[in-house]
Design goal:
The protein has 488 residues and is of the alpha+beta class. It folds into three domains: 51-175, no CATH class; 242-319, Helix Hairpins (Orthogonal Bundle), CATH 1.10.287; 326-478, Histidine kinase-like ATPase, C-terminal domain (Heat Shock Protein 90), CATH 3.30.565.10. It has helices at residues 4-55, 111-121, 175-227, 242-291, 298-322, 334-343, 368-385, 441-451, 475-478, and strands at 73-76, 82-85, 89-93, 129-130, 136-144, 147-159, 165-173, 330-333, 353-356, 363-366, 390-397, 400-407, 455-460, 466-473. Helix 1 runs antiparallel to helix 3 (175-227) and helix 6 packs across helix 7 (368-385). The two termini are 41 Å apart. Residues 110-125, 429-436 and 480-488 have low confidence and may be disordered.
Length: 488
Amino acid sequence: MRSVRARAALGATLVVAVALVVAGLAVLAVLRGNLTDRAGLEAEVAAREAAGQLALGVPYAELELGDEETHPVQVTDEAGRVVAVSKDLEAISGTGTSRVVPGPSAPVPSPGDDDDDDDDDGGDPAGGEVSSDAPDFGNGTATVDGETADYRFATVEATTKKDVTLTVHAGAPLAAEQQAVDTVRTSMLTGLPVMLLVVAGVTWLVTRRALRPVEGIRRELAAITASEDLGRRVPEPDSRDEIARLARTTNETLTVLEGSVDRQRRFVADASHELRSPIASLRTQLEVGAAHPELLDVPGAVADTVRLQVLAADLLLLARLDAGERPGRTAVDLGALVREEVSQRAADRIPPEVSVEGTGALDVAGSRGQLARVVGNLLDNAQRHAGRSVGVSVRAERGDVLVEVSDDGAGVPEAQRERIFERFVRLDDARGRDEGGAGLGLAIARDVAARHGGTLTVGTAPDGGARFTLRLPGRTAAQEPGRTADDG
């Protein structure tokens, strides 16, 4: 069953069906119990009336047993022999004995004998008594005047003036109880299917109405998939329920996805453009060299090859960062790393000057290779735009390690300070560059810094140039929960 509406309707119907069946059984049990107790009370009244007459010494043959058609009575003595039965009682069960014909028993009490005994014994003229104990109840059948029916029997004991203990079994019909229970059961069985159909129909309609916005969202997503137009958005209901939140989240996801796809397209376009120049230049030189070996510019070919290799390495690193690659957790001495990178540029046009401030720990957790790439990119950028000097400082500050690279160039306009960290962005007018830059160095540096739990910002140096500040959490802070170097 693939339909949510069908599953919801079926589930609700099953739950209601189980609830109604349980409730119906409980109602039938209570109804049957109440009617049975009522029949038992009637049987007890009839039994006590007969027992009272026996206690007063009324002869068996003269007993008045009330409505003998609806309350059959059977009286037995201590030996279990039947001594008296109600009129027209033809058969009985459930009273301990099925006999309905009185047999020989103890002397039948008579008024004359009672008076003599009272005088001789000097006893109490009211000598007989009826047991005050709660009667015993049981179900059985009785045939009265040819009709057999179910009865509720009450059993009461009585003691005559002759100290003879008799047991009286009196019954009350259960026909009313059975008829009432049957009527209620029939009504329930008749109404249950109708009730379940109503529940299923209402659940189906309510679920259909509730899921209508979901169907709209599905259709729009299907259209977006077919058209590949990520600029479209799914409809958002006016309600504030889960479906409305789902629609809003879906649109937010589509917005992020659209931006990601746009960035990817720009990245591919820019990468193609950047790769085209060195490849074309290298091809031209090789073709010229093949035709005229004496004209082959080997240094130029090597320079183009190196440029192409660096660009390919940058693109590969960006692809790995975009794929979510996490840096390692190796301890890296940032002070030593900066000195090493500076030493490799001692023969450059503008050798950078490095200063390490303070004696605190300068260790961070991360990838030494990626952090070296960040420092190297910052140094290359500073050297490319510096006039006469490049300064580098490393220091510890409140659990973080700061690396600052500054130059005395033209600086970065405040409005462009975030844009320069975008990929393939080069501010040619504000910060002239040579042909070696592809606009990826600062983007790579910021991505790597973020992957290490740090930040990279740009400001103004004291002499007016640009100052890039790399802030990374110290190794101790980086290992604390919630601020790991692997986050991101």
